[in-house]
Design brief:
It comes from Staphylococcus pseudintermedius. By secondary structure, the protein is an alpha/beta fold. It has one domain. The chain is built from three helices and three strands; from the N terminus they run βαβαβα. Strands 2-1-3 form a three-stranded parallel sheet. The longest helix has 10 residues.
Length: about 55
């Protein structure tokens, strides 16, 4: 399972749609127990990296 971390920044819906189009299972979450289960973690919004790290 791929988890897109929802920290309130980034274009999550487009990232999710693109990954699903490739045939992967994708979950959007900010819950630690879900993130811990991920095979892959995506932090969307590379332009907001500094803001994301402060969250």
């Amino acid at each position: 399972m791929i988890v897109i971390v929802d920290y309130g920044l980034g274009n999550i819906s487009n990232v999710k749609r693109a990954i699903e189009h490739l045939g992967y299972e994708v979950v959007v979450s900010n819950k630690q127990n879900i993130i811990d289960q991920a095979e892959t973690i995506i932090l969307p919004g590379v332009g907001h990296f500094k803001d994301a790290m402060s969250e």
